[in-house]
Amino acid sequence: MTDLLEIIKKDLKEYGVNYVLEPSKFLSYSNNIQVKGYFSYEPLELKVAYLNPEWHKILLHEYCHFLQYKEQASIWREVINNNYFQKFDDWLSHKIELSESELNLIIDKIVELEKDCELRVIELINKYNLGIENYDQEMNAYIEYYSKVKKTRVFDSSLIYQQT
């Protein structure tokens, strides 16, 4: 993991990304949603709560969002250009209401983006022989969690890997 960490730090620095390992288990993000890490393109920042025991997996996940941004992956562009994250966050915080079809579209596109990100994480795990087991199961739990969020209108990152 050490070699990959150096690659990640160098890559982020090269692109002017503010890289922060925060001494906490959770971070406040958009609309005060509690998360374990995030990548932001405005401003360019990748932040991970490193007191979380899963911090290295979170770093990989957020780094792969950075790679989507860096490569301007088509699903990244679609989600960002249509403000799907902002609309989703605003819906979660009850700032806006969405029709069922709008909500389904937004969540479907976010899930597509997250699947692409998670597949990139698995590629890194395999390429660098990181010895992280069962990541595919965690990936599926994370993707499935969006179905629960759609029903409950609550995003709690501490519950993502619990049984649904």
Topology overview:
Layout: H1 2-14, E1 18-22, E2 27-28, E3 34-35, E4 37-41, E5 44-49, H2 55-71, H3 74-81, H4 84-92, H5 100-127, H6 135-152
Parallel strand pairs: 1-5
Antiparallel strand pairs: 2-3, 4-5
Helix pairs in contact: 2-5, 3-5, 4-5, 5-6
Q: What is the H/E order?
A: HEEEEEHHHHH
Number of domains: 1
Question: What proportion of the residues form beta strands (DSSP E)?
Answer: 5-15%
Envelope shape:
globular
Describe this protein with a few key phrases:
164 residues, alpha+beta, three-stranded mixed sheet, 57% helix
Structure description:
This protein is of the alpha+beta class and 164 residues long. It has one domain (2-154). It contains six helices and five strands, in the order H-E-E-E-E-E-H-H-H-H-H. It starts with a helix and ends in a 12-residue tail after the last helix. The mean pLDDT is 93.
Quick rundown:
The protein has 164 residues and is an alpha+beta fold. 57% of the residues lie in helices and 12% in strands. β4 and β5 (44-49) form a beta hairpin.
